[in-house]
Amino acid sequence: MYAPLLQQLGLSKNEARIYETLLQEGESSVGAIAAKSKVHRRNVYDSIKRLLEKGLVFEVLQRNENVYRPVDPQKLLELVEEKALLLRRAMPELERIYREVPRVEEVYIYRGVEGWKNYLRDIIRVGEDFYSIGAKGAWMDPRVMTGFPEFIKETKRQKIRSYHIFDWEVFEQKHPILNYVGKDFKFFPRGYTAPAAVDTFGDRVNILSNIKLGGFDEDFSFTVIVNAGIADAFRTWFRFMYDFCPDPAEPC
């Protein structure tokens, strides 16, 4: 049941199966572990050794055959926090190395929810004002909503302003995204909705596909163009469209 989660926390497939088995049984011999976890007995020995090294299991010496018991699952949280601390300590140097590599012009593709999270991190990391053409409130898609409040909080802390030209449907349905983006937004007229959007910030242009009101389709991606000249051009085109849109209460 929890083996996939344990694997996400850094355990191998066999380690996860064995640790979960021990949690359920309390203590077991190698033979019993192999039978109940469905891990080959030869592999159980190797996995038990690694679990002992990680402090997740301890050995109980007995006259006939030693048995193994699990450590309280709180130990898992300790291990994750220790790794996070090590990463935080190294992060300034990792960021310095990343910034020193020239990235004048490049094009790449972000895919799916994890790509979307990278995109939000890019906005925070670049730290410059944000311009969106054909916006649909996709920031509030339920699949990424858990990180949305923190994202908005960080944009306010860094004083990153956002400027949006939303699709007509955002106005028509009074989408809640309008409560989060400040006052710098307008709307396209009815009939100009498309399943895409263009977002520009800093030297980046993001062309998003397969998005819809309030989120995006299961299979979506967006092309990231890192080019200061192209980004400036899109900001110019944004201003042209924005200037010709009337007051938000009357979509253009």
Short summary of the structure?
This protein has 252 residues and is α+β, with helices and mostly antiparallel strands.
Average predicted local confidence, pLDDT: 88
CATH architecture title of the largest domain: 2-Layer Sandwich
**Which segments are poorly predicted (pLDDT under 50) over 5 or more consecutive residues?**
none
CATH class of the largest domain: Alpha Beta
Total individual domains: 2
Q: So what's the overall shape?
A: elongated
* Rg over CA atoms: 25 Å
* Number of helices, where a helix is a run of at least 4 consecutive DSSP H or I residues: 9
Helix content: 40-55%
Number of strands: 9
Description:
The chain has 252 residues and is an alpha+beta fold. The chain has two domains: 3-76, Winged helix-like DNA-binding domain superfamily/Winged helix DNA-binding domain (Arc Repressor Mutant, subunit A, Orthogonal Bundle); 106-243, Endonuclease, Chain A (2-Layer Sandwich). 45% of the residues lie in helices and 22% in strands. It contains nine helices and nine strands. It has helices at 3-8, 13-25, 30-37, 41-53, 74-100, 112-126, 148-157, 168-172, 228-243; strands at residues 57-60, 67-70, 106-111, 130-135, 162-166, 185-187, 196-201, 204-212, 215-226. The strands form two sheets. The protein has a seven-stranded mixed beta sheet, with helices on both faces. Helix 8 (168-172) links the parallel strand 5 (162-166) and strand 6. The longest helix has 27 residues, at 74-100. It starts with a helix and ends in a 9-residue tail after the last helix.
